[in-house]
Amino acid sequence: MRSRLLGIATNLYRKYAPEAVLDPDAPKHWQEIVLYLFVLVAVSVGFLALLLGMYDNIQHDYWYILFACTIGYVGCLLVFFFPEARFEWRAATVCGLIYLIGISIVLTVGPFLSSREWLFAFSIMACILLGWPGAIASMVVSFVTWLGIWMLIKTDFWAHLFDAGKGAHHWLMITIDLLFIYVATALLTTFFSNRIGQSDQAAKSLSRQLLEERNKLAAFNRQLALEIEERKTIAKALQESEEKYRTILETMEDAYFEVDLQGKLTFFNRSLGVQLGYSGAELIGTHFRTLVDGAHAAKLVRAFNKLFRSGSAAQSVDIEIRTRHKGIRILSLLATLVRDGDGAPVKFQGLSRDITENRLMEEHLQRARKMEAVGALAGGVAHDLNNTLSGVVGYPELLLMNLPETDPLRKPIMGIKKSGEKAVAIVQDLLTLARRGVAVKEITNLNTLVHEYLQSTEFHTLKAFHAEVKFETQLAPSLLNISGSPIHLSKSLMNLISNAAEAIKDEGTIFVSTANRYVEQNEATSGNLAEGDYVVLTVRDTGEGIPPEDIDRIFEPFFTKKVMGRSGTGLGMAVVWGTVEDHGGHIDVRSGPGRGTTFTIHLPATREAVLQPTPTLSVADYRGHGERILIVDDVATQREVASKMLTVLGYAPEAVDSGLAAVAHCKTHKVDLLLLDMIMRPGIDGLETYKRILALHPGQKAIIASGYSETERIKETLRLGAGAYLKKPYSMEKLGLAVKNALSSEPTQASEPPAAAPSWRPS
C-alpha cells in the first residue's frame, strides 16, 4: 500500500512539475523545486486548512481572512496548473499571496498575533525565489507595511483590541526588532540562496564536465574495447595466418630454407629434411658446403654473391647435392636476399625442388625423340634392304636344294647365304632401333638366355679374342620368367658383354648376374617402373669406364668408340636401349674413368611357365598339293623368289606386281590364298587390296609379307581375316609353314565389313 501511494505521489509530482524541476541542468532548477513544493503543499494541504478555518472565520466575522485565504488557494491552483508561465511571475504571485494572507490577518486580529509570521514568510520566500531583487522589494514592502500599521495604531484602528498609546509605543519597539531581524534574515537568506544557486550551478557545471568526461571516458572505453577487439581479431588472424603459413610450409612438396650470411642453415621446413634425408636437429646450423661438392658449391657461392652484390630480386640455380639415402640428387634452388628495415642484408631465403626425376625424364625424352627420328630413317632403309636381301637369302636356299652334298659350289653358296643372314641381322638391328621390329613375345627365362649365349659360337669367338678377360656369373636359382623376344634379348646380352670386353684393355673381369626384385610403389627409382616383380640383369666390367662427356651418348644410334677395323656398327647399345623399352623395362648405367661400368636392366617378370619347344618339322610337313596362290608384290625379285619357293613346295603360284592387278585377277580367277605385300608403290597398299578382294570373295584367305613393320594397317588386315604376318626376307620353311597353316584354317569373317569403294593411300 505504501509503495502504491508513493507511486501515485511520484506520478502526480512528475505530471504537473515544470520542466525546470525535472531538468537538473535548468538555470533556476532548485528555485523551481522550492516553488513547486510550496505550491504542491498549498494545493494539497491548504484546501483542508481552508475548510477547517472557514467555519471559525465566518463565526467570528473574519471576512478579510476568509477572502484572502480563498484568493490565496485559487492563486496557488493557477500557479500549479500553469507551470509554463514565467518563473518570476509565478514566484511573485506566490509571494504576493503570502503577503495578502498576512495583511488580512493583521487587519482582522491586529499586528501582535500570527500576522508577523506570514509577513516574515513573505520576506523569506521573496529572498529565496527572487534573490536580491526579491530581498530588496520584500524589505521595502515590509517597511512600508510596518509604517502603515503604526499609523493605523495611531488612528485607533484597533481600539477595540488595545490602547492606541501603548500599542503605538509597543509596535515601534517591535518594528525596530523586526527591522533588524528582517534585514539580517533577508541578507543571509539571499546570500545563502545565491551561494546555493552558485553551488548548484557549479555542481551542474562540474556535473556536466563530469558527464562530458564520463562520456569521453565511455567513448574512450568503447574505442579501447574496439581496439582490443580489433587487436584480438588481428592477433587471431595473425595466429591463423601463422598456422596457415606453417601448414603450407610443412605440407608443400617444395622445400623452404633460410641461410645466414655465413652460409649456415637457420630455418627450413620438413620437405628439406625429406629431400636430404636428415632430421631437423642434424641440419640446423649446417653449412651448405658440407652437402654440396666442389664445382656445385662454387656455383652456389656465385649465385649467393650475385644476390648480395647486385641486389637482384632472385637467383635460380641447379646444383647436385649429397643426400643420406638417395645418393646424389639434383635440386633446383630459387633464392632471394632478405634485408632489415635499414636495408642491410640479414639472410638468404628460398625454395628448393628435387628435379632429379624430371631431369632424367627430360634426358629420356630427348633420347627417345632422337632415337625416334633416327629410327624412322633406319626403318625406311631397313624396308628397302629387306626387299633386296630376299634374293640374297632366298636364292642360295633354292640353289642348295638342287646341289649334291659333294658339289664344290655348295661352300661358296653357303657363304653367300650366311652373309645374307648376317645382313638380315643388321637390318633387324635397324628395325629394333626404329622400334618397329617384329617382337614375337614368348615366355622365356633370362638364365636360359645367358647359358645359351655362353655356349654359343659368338661367345667363344669373343673369349678367344679377349683371352685375358675373365667371365663370372651369378645367376639366381629361382629366377622368375619374363615375356619377351628371346632373339632381341639375346642380341642385347651379346652387345652388353661385347662392349664390356672391348672396354678392358688388358686383364679384367666381366661379371654377369641375374636376380629377382620387387619394386615398391613408393620406392624412388630413376625410371618409370610400376610396382611389381622384376627380373634384374647386371653386366659389370672392370674396364676403363666411360668418360663423363660420353655417358649421355652411349645409347645414340651409330655412336661407337671401338677401334677402327673391329666389329661395330654403332647400333649395339642403341639396340639394347630399344629392346629394353619394347619390353617395358628400364636400363641404368653407372660408370666413371678407371672405375669400370655397370649396366643394370629391369624387365617385368611373369608367373607364367615356359612352353616346351616344338619338334623340328621336315619339308613334307608343310608341302602343298597344287593349291593356287597369288603373289602380290611390287618387287620383281621378291615375286620370283616366292614363286620358286612355292613351286618347290608343291603349290601353283601366280604373281602380279600391284594391288590393282590383284583385284583385276581375282575378278576372273579364284585363288586359294593371297601372299600380300603391304607397301606397294605406286597404287593401293595391301590393306586396301585385301578389302577390295574381300568384297569380291568374302572369306578369302591371305597371309601378309612385309620387310617393314607390324603397323596399324597390318593389324587391321589381320583383323579382317588375314592368317599370318611373314617378315621379309623369309626362309622356305617359314613361308611353307605360314602357307600351310593359312590354308588349313577355317575362313575368318571380317570384324568389320570391308569398304567396297576404292581408295588410294600414299605410302
Automatic annotation (TrEMBL):
PROSITE patterns in the cross-refs: HIS_KIN, PAC, PAS, RESPONSE_REGULATORY
Biological process according to GO: regulation of DNA-templated transcription
Transmembrane segments: 33-55, 61-82, 94-113, 119-150, 171-192
Keywords in alphabetical order: ATP-binding, Kinase, Membrane, Nucleotide-binding, Phosphoprotein, Transferase, Transmembrane, Transmembrane helix, Two-component regulatory system
Chain residue ranges for the region called Disordered: 743-763
Matches recorded under PANTHER family: C4-DICARBOXYLATE TRANSPORT SENSOR PROTEIN DCTB (PTHR43065:SF46), SENSOR HISTIDINE KINASE (PTHR43065)
UniProt-recorded name of the protein: histidine kinase
